[in-house]
Every structure is written in structure tokens, then in C-alpha cells.
Batch of 2 targets.
Target 1
Amino acid sequence: NSHWYSPETGIYHSKHPPVNLPTDPFLDVVSHIFSKPHNGVSALIDSTSGHTIPYSHLYPLVKSMAYGLHQMGISQGDVVLILLPNSIYFPVIVFGVLYLGAVVTTMNPLSTLPEIKKQTLDSNATLAFTLPDCLGKFHQLGLRAIGVPETGGFDLKQMGMSDFDKLIGEKNPISVPRTAIRQEDTAAIMYSSGTTGACKGVVLTHRNLISMIELFVSFEASQYEYSSEGNVHLVVMPMFHIYGLSHSVLGLLSLGSTVVVMKKFDADEMVKAIGRYRVTHFTAVPPLLVALTAKAKIVEGTVWKSLKQVCCGAAPVTRKSIEDFVQTLPHVDFIQGYGMTESTAVGSRGFNTEKCRKHTSMGLMAPNMEARVVDWVTGSFLPPRRSGELWLRGPAVMKGYLNNPEATAITIDEHGWLRTGDIVYFDEEGYLHILDRLKEIIKYKGFQIAPAELEAILVTHPDILDAAVTSAKDEEAGEVPMAFVLKRQGSLLSEAAVIDYVAMQVAPYKKVRKVVFTHSIPRSAAGKILRRELRGLISRI
Ligand code: 4UU
């Protein structure tokens, strides 16, 4: 144990050698990678239309985007909101914004007007990219927005088609003035509710992003023998979520892999894309893994031959789903990854060798990251095989929550340790295993839902006196939000009416899906909802 676990300090070190981090700002680091000769390799392919951005066009497009944004008055520190489904243009926008030292904030494209308003105000976004049919929402908010074409190829020669084409239409942009960007400057504001309360802006710096991409460039590349020309990743995970943004947008493109972009999940389209583009790697969340396995059982033939590795993460996956997958496609490596928005999606990842196939583990700690397992009652640091709350420290840990020093202080201690709210243990070989969650979030197909946000909506209903939301297990989605509701005496409010009331105000994935009327909500003397007791109530229903 001596090398990776220190009993004196309770610190788990990564078993991987440390990676030296460059000291340049993010775009300077990746521009070296983009500028390498890529011999005609595709950077991004739209899975349905086949439209492609080759690596040779990627950096020129990013510079055109930066130039266009600059012409629109965007400069260092300005915040740009991206409210889009997956698209081959999504990464171009992200890199263009970062080139200027401006800041990216992302949102689920199905968000409602109040949700968009809230994040726009909180992040102080001054420009948005969205689908043409969402432009009206931004006009209502009085925010400048650019519609991004949903399908179709962008032709560098064809100018004046739409605002977006104009924006990236400049073929030879004169150099954009770049003020000095420092590594500690903000690069992205992602939203997460952390261990408690409502959604908060997670401030990620250029250094955070660099520490994440170096994981791919220096580390993953050596682990899996990535060759810059051989790997084709199918990306269904949304790029607005940290898993998609960091892994598929920033990580894979920095590595020189080909990213096949799927806008909307469809099992038949997925199989077609795997065959058509000879996909080698697939990034999944548990329901996608199940869908992939189901298809692999019925679709025979050579379609699956190219597939080398599937990585699952973002929510707990059952042992049964894993076993089912590895039995169905035994030639494919299965690994899990663990991370969170607050750690730029860096945490641990699996790698398999013949002698160690720990499919149910989250793998080993990422290089440069340290961990502690803490007894959340006594505060003592626990050795391998003992379970407690995971704390993380390292260059991928966020700067803090935006304009929220109180929330930052309860999440990151003065020595830089991030409380993850996950209950884990390390086994005797240093593999991380996740057992449960101490924090409040609900994970619906890997997406975060903050119970506090739904509770705040529920109690605005005239017939609801008090409400508490927790997660209920669900076969398909993993977890779904379940509301305990105390209604006004004599009220005829039905379960369906409660579900509808919330559904009208939130993005569809956040919908309350189960309602239980109760006579009281378990609260502490201070009025805090006792969530463990709520979970206990479920087992008695
Ligand atoms: C059980 O979901 C994410 C990030 C996911 C991710 C996945 C694979 C990152 C890198 C990678 O390689 O971020 P958030 O902020 O939406 O949610 C974070 C929470 C964690 O605290 C944990 O509770 O999501 C849960 N989680 C997982 N749970 C993340 N990964 C896993 C996992 N198994 N593999």
C-alpha cells in the first residue's frame, strides 16, 4: 500500500505517474495539437447527415468564430450561453469563445423560459447560441442570440446565408486581439447543485480544463494506444453536460480522435452510425449501455467488429447491466469513469488488463489527483476497504461556486479538499468503488436534478402546504424524482395534477414522476428536510 496510500495523512495518491501541466492558457495548449498534420482525418462528423469538419478546417473555423464574436463585441470575460443539442458546431463555438478569453456556459436545450432567464442572469451571459426555433425565447428575455443551423453542412465559401454562417464565414480572419489570458481566469461556468440546495454556477478555469485534457493527451493515449488516426468515438452524451463537454468536446478533439456526433439518441441510428463510421469507442450512461446491449443481441453481423471500448459513467450502473454487456460483446473493453462537474469531470477511470478486470469499479484515481475517504460522522480518514465520503484534491477541482462564498466554503475546505457527497471505498489494489450518495442530487439518466428546485416550485401551488422531493429507483432511468406532498385539508388535488404543475415549469427530464400524499414532511428542528427519513418512507410504500 505504501506508494499510493499513506496511513499517516489518509491520502490516496494516484497510482499513475504525475503529468506535467503546461503553463499556457487553454487555447494555446490545444492549438499546438490542432495544428499538427492530421492527414485528412475528420474531427467532427454529423451522424445523420454525414457532414464533416476535417481537422485541417477545425482551427481555421475556430479562429473565424473568434473573429466573428470579436466583431460582435464579445471580449475577454464576457459570458456566452450555449443552449444546443449536440452538433458539429458546438465544439467550434466553445473553442472560439475560449480563444477570446471569454467564458462558456451551457444549458439543456429543452430548458424552459424561467430556467433560461435564471441562468442567464446568474452567469451574466450577454450572447446566446441556440436552435433557430428557440430564438423567440431569447427575444423575450431581451438577450442577443444566434441561431445555429440544425443540420446541413457549413460551406466556407457560402456567405451571407444566416447569422451563423456570417459569423464563421470569414476565411482569413485578421488576427483577433488577444489580451493576456491567465490560467486562473474563468473558462466555463457549468451548473450543478453540488451536495445541497439549488443549482449553482461551477467556475472552471483554464487550468482546470488543461488538467482535464492532459488526462487524455498524456495519459489515456498511453493507456489505450490511441492512434490519432484510428479512433472513432460515437458521442451521444450531451455536450452541454460536463461529461460530454470535457470528454467529447475538449478531450477527444485534443487527442486528435474522430468524433461522430449524434444529436438525439435513437437505438437504430446508433447501430447504423457504429457500422457506417466503424466506431471504435462509445461513451455511455447506464440507460445507453442497456440499449446498446439490447441491440447487440438482435443485430448480428460485422457491425460490432470495429468497437473496442465502451465507457460508462455519470450514474450507478447495475452489475447485471455490466455482465449482460460483457457477455454479449466479449471483444469490447468495458470501463467505468467517475467524475463530477465540480472536478471538471476528472476523478477516476478504469483500464483493463488481462489480469485485472474490475468492471464494477470506477477504476484508478486520475494522475495528479489525490483522494481521501472520510467518516462523515467522526471526520476520521479511512484506509482501503473502509467506506466513507470521498474527498478530492488536485488541479481539476473548480475554483468555487459563482458569487457564492458560503456554498464554496462548505464544499471545498481550506486545504483544497472537495467534498464529493459520494460514499465510496478503495479496494486493496487502489480501485475506487462507489456505494451510495450522501448528497441530495437525483440522477435521471445521468442528468442532475436538484430536489430543492422542485420543492420550491411545489410549494408555490395554492393547495400544497409543504413538499419534499427525493429519488425513487427506476428500471429505465436509474432514478426519478418522487414528491412527498402535504396538501391543504379538503383539497382535491390529484397526483396527476401535481405532476403537471411541475412539468409545465421545468425541462422534461426534471419532471416529478411519482407523488405520494402524506400527513407530514420529516424536518429537523431547524426546518431542514430529513432526506434519509424520506428514503426510509419509500421502502414502506
Ligand atoms: C456512479 O456526471 C457527472 C460526470 C460524469 C463522468 C463520467 C465518466 C465524468 C468522467 C467520466 O469519465 O457529473 P455530475 O456533476 O453531473 O454528477 C456527479 C455525480 C457524482 O458525484 C456521482 O454521484 O454523478 C455520480 N457519478 C457516478 N455514479 C458520476 N460517475 C458515476 C459512476 N457511477 N461511474
Target 2
Amino acid sequence: MSAEAVSESKTAVRRGRLVVLAGPSAVGKSSVVRELRTRLPELMFSVSATTRDPRPGEVDGKDYRFTTRDEFQRMIDSGELLEWADIHGGLQRSGTPAAPVEEALEAGRPVLVEVDLAGARAVRKAKPEALLVFMAPPSWDVLVQRLTGRGTESDEVVARRLETARVELAAQDEFDTVIVNEDVSRACDELVSLLVGN
Ligand code: 5GP
């Protein structure tokens, strides 16, 4: 190997791993992701843009980038989004800004993108190397309990979320791995090993 090649191979950074996490609303993705971010400080968690209103406790720029519909449309038109989708029958739109994901992968950081089913399919098309992970509830009843128990949404919104959940659960075979979220720490362990394990 020439001296140049040696120095190039020393500076070349191995690309980070891209994991796409999907699963029904209220399955516990946010809790798992919160723990994951403390356990893996090098993780780049993609902050999605969304047109929905913040829930109590959600912070703009950390949980989501909350945008108007017009601003979201501008992002679509300018090609800034890796993927985007109409969520819950068009009640809201959410999407993944492409540039921060690509920059983190190039810098060798593991990246986690949390999306809905349509988003997972879109990322797979755009980035075939992505690992698709589905988070499932221990049972349908547990999911219904968690969704209705949150108490922050109207009956109409809950009904739509349940309908979306039914469709998403039926598609879990399309994913590379299914994590059953019975216990936040254990689900987190599984994600850590997918993101940075051997
Ligand atoms: P929530 O409004 O409860 O935070 O999320 C509703 C759904 O939108 C969830 O299934 C979540 O994974 C999905 N979602 C959040 N961000 C994105 C995104 O950037 N793109 C897509 N396609 N779905 C997203």
C-alpha cells in the first residue's frame, strides 16, 4: 500500500448504521428512544418535521420540529425531506429532514429514524442499507389501554390511531426485526445492539 493509501484508509470513517423504527402510536417508542438517547450519546436521533401541535412536554427542535402546513409544503417542494407521509388519514404530515441524517452517517454515527409504515417503506427505497425495526405491543389489548390511557387526544383521534395501528401491525412481516416492547430497558438493549453491536 502506498503512503497515500495508508493515510487515506486511516482517515476514512466507517459509515454509521441507519435504523428505522416504526410501530403503532402509543406502543412506547418515545420512552424507548428517550432511554436510548441517554445510553448512546453518539446516536443521531432524527428530529422529524410535523404539522401537528406539540403535546404537553414536547419541545420544539428536540422532539419534533413543529411547522405550519405551508412551511412543510416548502420543505417537500425543495427536496429537503428524505421521506414524508400523511399520518392518520391526513390529520397531520410528518417527514424526515434528509441532510442531518446523511451528515451523521458520513461522520460514522449511528442514526435512528422514527417513522410510520409509509415512511419505513420510503426509507427502504431511498436507502436500501437501512435496517427496518418494528416495535410491537405485547398484545392488542395492551395497546388499546396505552392509547386510551394517555388521555391527551379526542375520541376521534384515538379511533384513527387505533385504525392506523391495525394496519401497521398487519405489515410487521415486511420488517427486518420485530421488538416486542414489554419492558423499556430490554427493548432499548435490543436497539443498542442493532445500532452499534457486532
Ligand atoms: P405522533 O404524532 O404520535 O408523534 O406520531 C404519529 C406517527 O407518525 C407515528 O407512527 C410516528 O412514527 C410517525 N412519524 C413521526 N415522525 C415521522 C416522520 O418523520 N415521517 C413519517 N413518515 N412518520 C413519522
